[in-house]
Amino acid sequence: LTASNLPQLDAGEEHDFFNKCEQLNYSPHEVYRCCQHNVAMGWPWYAMNLWQGTSDNGLAAWLYAASEVTAKVGTAGVETTIVAQTDYPFKGDVRLKVTPSKAVTFPLYLRVPEWAMDFKLKVNGKAVKIDAAAGAYVRIERRWTRGDTVSFEFGMEVSLTTWPRTGAVTVDRGPLSYSVKIGERWKKHHSGEIWSKADRNKWPGWEVFPTTPWNYGLVIDDLKKAFKVVTKKGALADQPWSLENAPIEIKAKAKQIAKWKLGKDKT
């Protein structure tokens, strides 16, 4: 998350950063760049902004995750709970269960991400035809009663983003970008005056080095046939971002490029 597009995280000071110090290896001390600590703030901010109230007394699903929200909606301010069930961002289907304390009319907005290839909507199990432009909101205004459900699905297809400076590409699927699966060797690292003041067993530093090749180029003749999406069966792990728990893998043909090696700045 904090050092994307790099094959290793080492303690060298020759990396292409403004400050010349240990910038890539994992460290609990101030020699490390602030990304390591700041990146975690994105998760609570994301959770805090899943749902938004609207100026017309409704609710908007602004971001998606398994969640529960309770708010006062409608002109009478009726307390209503909505439970969202989903494995987003790994899967594109979302199910909402609406439970108002009494029947109430209010608008429900659903954000359609810009990457969505299509959008399928059902209300109480019945398909609803609706114009759903990518990057816009779908508005559903109706009289909601206890037990109403809204189910929708975003079409997730593999796509490529091309970077003009290098001609390299990023493999995307839905809201996520994927990287080549690289084996990891973790090595404890301690250096500098700060380490002499800390308990190295409780507060270790780490370098991470690749144990498998990373210098591959994709072989793509037909984009639609170039990738195979493999979904692991079973419930989503509590920590789906780890290498061993990743619920989605994308398989593709690639060729190792022998001349592609780390540069002087280890990137």
- Distance from N terminus to C terminus (CA atoms, Å) equals 16 Å
How confident overall, as mean pLDDT?
A: 89
Main beta sheet, described?
6 strands, antiparallel
Strand residue percentage:
35-45%
**What is the C-level CATH assignment of the domain at 53-154?**
Mainly Beta
Which spans have pLDDT < 50 for at least 5 consecutive residues?
none
Helix content: under 10%
In the CATH hierarchy, the third-tier topology of the domain at 53-154 is known as Maltose phosphorylase, domain 3
Radius of gyration: 23 Å
Question: What string, H for helix and E for strand, traces the elements in order?
Answer: HHEEEEEEEEEEEEEEHEEHEEE
Strand order of the largest sheet: 3-4-5-10-7-8
**Number of alpha- plus pi-helical segments:** 4
**Architecture of the domain at 53-154, according to CATH?**
Sandwich
Secondary structure category: mainly beta
Protein name: Non-reducing end beta-L-arabinofuranosidase-like GH127 middle domain-containing protein
InterPro entries: Beta-AFase-like, Beta-AFase-like_GH127_middle
Organism: marine sediment metagenome
Domain Non-reducing end beta-L-arabinofuranosidase-like GH127 middle: 59-156
Describe this structure in words.
The strands form six sheets. The protein has a six-stranded antiparallel beta sheet with strand order 3-4-5-10-7-8, with no helix packed on it. The protein has a four-stranded mixed beta sheet with strand order 1-2-6-9, with no helix packed on it. A three-stranded antiparallel beta sheet has the order 11-12-13, with no helix packed on it. It contains four helices and 19 strands. Helices cover 7% and strands 38% of the residues. The mean pLDDT is 89. The two termini are 16 Å apart. The chain is globular and about 65 Å long. It has 267 residues and is mainly beta. 12% of the residues are buried. It has a domain at 53-154: Maltose phosphorylase, domain 3, CATH 2.60.420. A hairpin with a 6-residue loop joins strand 11 and strand 12 (169-173). InterPro entries: Beta-AFase-like (IPR049174), Beta-AFase-like_GH127_middle (IPR049046). Residues 59-156 form the Non-reducing end beta-L-arabinofuranosidase-like GH127 middle domain. Pfam families: Glyco_hydro127M (PF20736). This is Non-reducing end beta-L-arabinofuranosidase-like GH127 middle domain-containing protein.
